[in-house]
């Protein structure tokens, strides 16, 4: 340590005279180019940091927030007997085994603010989503593909025949995927229709629509997955999941 | 630019290195806490919903 201090002092002793002698040698142009180069390096570092922020840090924040809100819903369910559904905290949890992402809290609305908390939102506009317990209609959801929890990141792993389960306080809604649309325009709001014709269905029924952006890391197009209700199961005292989730 | 900052920091090399580290961390914090959350919605990377175009809600 003492040795380092000594070296340091030496550096400082020899340092200052060296600096002025070096400086006049450099032209103004060279100095300007050096500053410009440093600015470019800085810009590169900031962009790299932005990627880290988008793909990692927002996930950390969103997962933390989603966990907190999810726990609140579960606590709420445990405390309360039969009663009105609380739509503010979230209406239930989505389980898609083929996406390997556990449970996703579902809340009302698809605003950036809502979805950034690492949840899925059901559409209120441009086409109002039906609720799973409605007799007919399309339960339409959106969630992030990357960043902010990236809850639908693996939507491309969902294939026809895969189960999609929605869990409310007292019912498991078991859907089966029957159609996917790997790429569509972001203005294609017809995919949210009560009877989504593009999926091939013509008659009213109980559908579910998952939507997110594609290709990964961009927002150029939308990826759609459609499912149809297969059956419902009452939630028992232990909340035993349906066989699809076991 | 960085050379200029380095020359104007007080103390010996160790102190300067420490101050530099603190400055870098402070800048990263400001970027993550304020700048990036502000910039993100302005960039077209994270719109996931279908809507009716510019007039529609996101």
From TrEMBL, chain B:
<protein>
    <recommendedName>
        <fullName>ABC transporter permease</fullName>
    </recommendedName>
</protein>
<keyword id="KW-0472">Membrane</keyword>
<keyword id="KW-0812">Transmembrane</keyword>
<feature type="transmembrane region" description="Helical">
    <location>
        <begin position="12"/>
        <end position="36"/>
    </location>
</feature>
<keyword id="KW-1133">Transmembrane helix</keyword>
């Amino acid at each position: 340590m003492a040795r380092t201090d000594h070296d340091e002092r030496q550096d400082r002793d020899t340092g200052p005279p060296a600096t002025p002698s070096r400086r006049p040698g450099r032209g103004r142009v060279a100095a300007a180019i050096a500053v410009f180069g440093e600015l470019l390096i800085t810009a590169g570092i900031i962009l790299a940091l932005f990627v880290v922020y988008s793909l990692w840090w927002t996930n950390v924040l969103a997962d933390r927030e989603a966990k907190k809100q999810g726990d609140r819903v579960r606590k709420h369910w445990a405390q309360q007997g039969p009663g009105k559904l609380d739509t503010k905290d979230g209406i239930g949890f989505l389980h898609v085994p083929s996406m390997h992402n556990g449970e996703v809290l579902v809340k009302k609305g698809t605003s950036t603010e809502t979805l950034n908390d690492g949840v899925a939102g059901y559409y209120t506009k441009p086409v109002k989503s039906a609720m799973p317990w409605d007799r007919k209609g399309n339960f339409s959801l959106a969630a992030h593909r990357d960043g902010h929890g990236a809850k639908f990141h693996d939507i491309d792993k969902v294939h026809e025949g895969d189960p999609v389960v929605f869990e409310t306080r007292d019912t498991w809604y078991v859907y089966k995927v029957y159609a996917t649309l790997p790429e569509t325009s972001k203005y294609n709001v017809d995919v949210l229709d009560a009877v989504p014709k593009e999926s091939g269905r013509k008659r009213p029924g109980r559908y579910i629509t998952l939507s997110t952006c594609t290709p990964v890391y961009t927002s150029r197009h939308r990826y759609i997955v459609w499912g149809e209700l297969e059956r419902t199961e009452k939630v028992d005292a232990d909340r035993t999941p349906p066989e699809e989730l076991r | 630019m960085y050379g200029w900052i380095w020359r104007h920091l007080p103390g010996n090399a160790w102190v300067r290195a420490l101050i530099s580290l603190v400055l870098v961390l402070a800048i990263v914090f400001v970027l993550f806490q304020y700048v990036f959350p502000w910039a993100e919605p302005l960039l077209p990377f994270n719109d996931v919903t279908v809507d009716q175009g510019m007039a529609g809600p996101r």
